[in-house]
Design brief:
Blueprint lengths: L12 H13 L4 E6 L6 H12 L3 E7 L1 H7 L9 H9 L6 E5 L5 H7 L3 E5 L10 H6 L3 E5 L7 H12 L8
């Protein structure tokens, strides 16, 4: 079981599925995206705002610490899931956050049944997990252009190059 932040935006998978169904009954377009969002940066904000603009309510699947450790480099995440979810919850464009332990969000996508599935344009549509599920329900897949200079990996590499082995950056 994943620990959640204290935000009212953070829901369990079951509660998120119920919220998504209620939104659809009200005629709202449900949008889903997912990610680790380890060091939130301008690229993430642009991406999440573009996702939110694709519908009425944005559900974000957040990889738990267990999930991040399974799919990223050793030492990740840099920020734990409680802190990452708290930062996401502070964004007006994010309506619901769901932590998940699996390495991919397929089960979560099946539970939410979004009308729009959003992923970065660095993913070909054929490789986007859940695209077939969403399209089979009559939904669509949106690929958002990303700035390659604005990625968590690029930021980590830039910090390491700039500060090397020093323990603290110079003021």
């Amino acid at each position: 079981m994943v620990a959640t932040s204290q935000s009212s935006k953070c829901l369990t998978r079951a509660a998120a599925g119920q919220r998504a169904a209620a939104c659809r009954r009200r005629g709202q377009t449900v949008v889903f995206t997912n990610g680790c969002f380890d060091l939130l940066h301008a690229g993430h904000v642009h991406y999440l705002q573009a996702a939110r603009a694709a519908g009425d309510v944005l559900f974000v699947g957040l990889n738990s610490d267990v999930s991040v450790q399974a799919i990223k480099d050793p030492g990740r995440p840099l920020n734990g899931q409680v802190h990452r979810s708290a930062v996401l919850a502070g964004l007006a464009c994010v309506d619901v956050i769901i932590l998940f332990d699996e390495p991919d969000p397929l089960r979560l996508i099946e539970s939410i049944a979004p009308d729009v599935l959003v992923k970065g344009a660095d993913w070909p549509e054929t490789a986007i997990i859940g695209a077939d599920v969403v399209k089979a329900r009559g939904g669509r897949v949106l690929r958002v252009a990303l700035d390659p200079e604005l990625s968590t990996t690029t930021l980590i590499q830039r910090v390491l190059k700039r500060y090397g082995q020093r323990r603290e950056p110079a003021s």
